[in-house]
Automatic annotation (TrEMBL), chains A, B:
Catalyzes the Claisen rearrangement of chorismate to prephenate and the decarboxylation/dehydration of prephenate to phenylpyruvate. Its EC number is 4.2.1.51, 5.4.99.5. One of its GO terms (biological process) is L-phenylalanine biosynthetic process. Residues 281-358 form the ACT domain. SUPFAM superfamilies: ACT-like, Chorismate mutase II, Periplasmic binding protein-like II. GO terms for molecular function: chorismate mutase activity; prephenate dehydratase activity. The record marks 262 as: Essential for prephenate dehydratase activity. Residues 7-41 form a coiled coil. It comes from Methylophaga aminisulfidivorans MP. SMART domains: CM_2. GO terms for cellular component: cytoplasm. Its main location: cytoplasm. This is Bifunctional chorismate mutase/prephenate dehydratase.
Amino acid sequence: MNEKEALANIRQKIDDIDLKIQQLLNDRAAMAQEVARIKMDSGEQADFYRPEREAMVLRTVMERNQGPLASAEVARLFREIMSACLAAEKPLQVAYLGPEGSFTQAAAQKQFGGSVELHPMTTIADVFHAVETSHACYGVVPVENSTEGMVSHTLDRFISSPLKINGEVTLRIHHYLLSKEKNLEDISKVYAHPQAIAQCRQWLMEQLPQAELVPLNSNSEAAKRVAAEPQNSAAIAANRAADIYGLSILARNIEDEVDNTTRFLVIGTQNVGPSGVDKTALLVATKNKPGALQTLLKPLADNSISMTRIESRPSRKGIWEYVFFIDIEGHIHEPAVASALSLLENESSMFRILGSYPKAVL
Amino acid sequence: MNEKEALANIRQKIDDIDLKIQQLLNDRAAMAQEVARIKMDSGEQADFYRPEREAMVLRTVMERNQGPLASAEVARLFREIMSACLAAEKPLQVAYLGPEGSFTQAAAQKQFGGSVELHPMTTIADVFHAVETSHACYGVVPVENSTEGMVSHTLDRFISSPLKINGEVTLRIHHYLLSKEKNLEDISKVYAHPQAIAQCRQWLMEQLPQAELVPLNSNSEAAKRVAAEPQNSAAIAANRAADIYGLSILARNIEDEVDNTTRFLVIGTQNVGPSGVDKTALLVATKNKPGALQTLLKPLADNSISMTRIESRPSRKGIWEYVFFIDIEGHIHEPAVASALSLLENESSMFRILGSYPKAVL
């Protein structure tokens, strides 16, 4: 068999595989529609998107994958397949913090795939509002945006919102050094958000030991400032800021940590079931007495429950001075979590479960 | 069988389907790797990405699709499957006109799927340069951006570049009315690129009959102008301009035509084979005599070949006063096209085939 015949032969095999895949994709969509029909018949308010079920499918797919496709690639394809099947069940509206092209849009696409309708909102409050008023089924907002410091807006919004956390998305974020200059040696000043400076400290020490580091409110502001100055300055910012402010990229991916990720929350109205690997978010206030926080957290340690994050925020309701946002590992349906949380609730002056949801798979 | 059992039953069937799909996806990737191996062994310069083959697969998939998944959805899934298989063969670098979040990025993703490495470039010339110097295998540039008028940069670049056209992508574009005002009745002036005004004329007449329409160089400039003015003005622009310039969205999708698409070209070094439904792009200059253009185009009409577009541009080489960019239907391997082009070549003082490539499928 010559090369041409060999190639034609394999292409025919690929065509045969494609026919089978297409049949199976449509079979799967038909099954998903059947699930939808049964749920509708039951008369209850039906949740078509099931974050815990999707997380379980993706984990299974990744665990059993033998290649040659990389596990993350296969998971990405299954995310899209589930997205398409869901759209055949019921078109999903998802609001996110815009503009188009924002990291939050990328996070929303990563979570929901390409078949949902994504609606950019101008503020985090607008995203909450869209879901609260049922204009969108779900919302996606940044919660730990290490470089832009937007965390507080999202957390504060939960104090007054009835919405729940239905999922989390993590995204890798890269930093770029932007300037009007063409050479690193001409840079004597670097502007950036303090956290961006911290994340690139080693690179800055090695490449720009002579440069003055000037902290600003945001990386966008840094890029804007560099654009307005005649020379010798640079900004740490996202790629896109180069075009918006007419700067050149002097260096790429200058973050010290290879794994510089930003975290987003999926907000919704659903109670998400356990997926096997879950997190639970709490909003609590302590009684106003010394050692109150330690007492509050003791049940978690006693039950060997990991706390992955705690953040204090001034309460706006005037009843408590501070509220705490606490993330723990586990789902409220797990007995150890349920009993620890019941003890924790006794010690708090305010206690709300913001949601149990699957830990980000990819 | 109660509802819970029925759902569990269907979920099990979905899991079984998923297992089969995953196996087939990996089988397909293994076949693609085998194709790559045969090509490498042959010693020739191998093209791993075959636009005509992808177009044929997508057309077949859409034609035979029986649902319940929509044909466009299945095609989108197959685009992603081919993208993942290609990445398993050879990671592909694609340069595009940035910034991230631009329409051109969306076009690049639509053409190449989510598994390629996309690199944003600052200018159209930079995209050409990246491909010419082999820093990217392919480039994606706008060619008929009806609202921003960037057409000329791309066409002019072909006059001096050896690159070929390897594909086209079409994208639907929406217009938004952006303003600091909250009510339409407060708008007395609308800024926009003349083509954007033309595309929204009916909507403007109905909704803002009293408003003065002010043409500017680009819609981005219009948004910027509105941001700088105290009140009563609005801009027609893309969604994202709202956030960049701090404006509110007063109205969405105000274009009169439902099908307001923008066209992009995939540029590369490849000779793309016929897919069955193709287009060919020509760059020609006429001999300087009366009626030369009519004579030039006669062979096309005589051979019943449709010309889909003609655009004259001033030549920068000084030898010809004008050059013409001509798009026709058909592939240079089709006998009618070949013979018509050979006649056309005789009539022209300069003649270059910029490429035959598959017509956009989706």
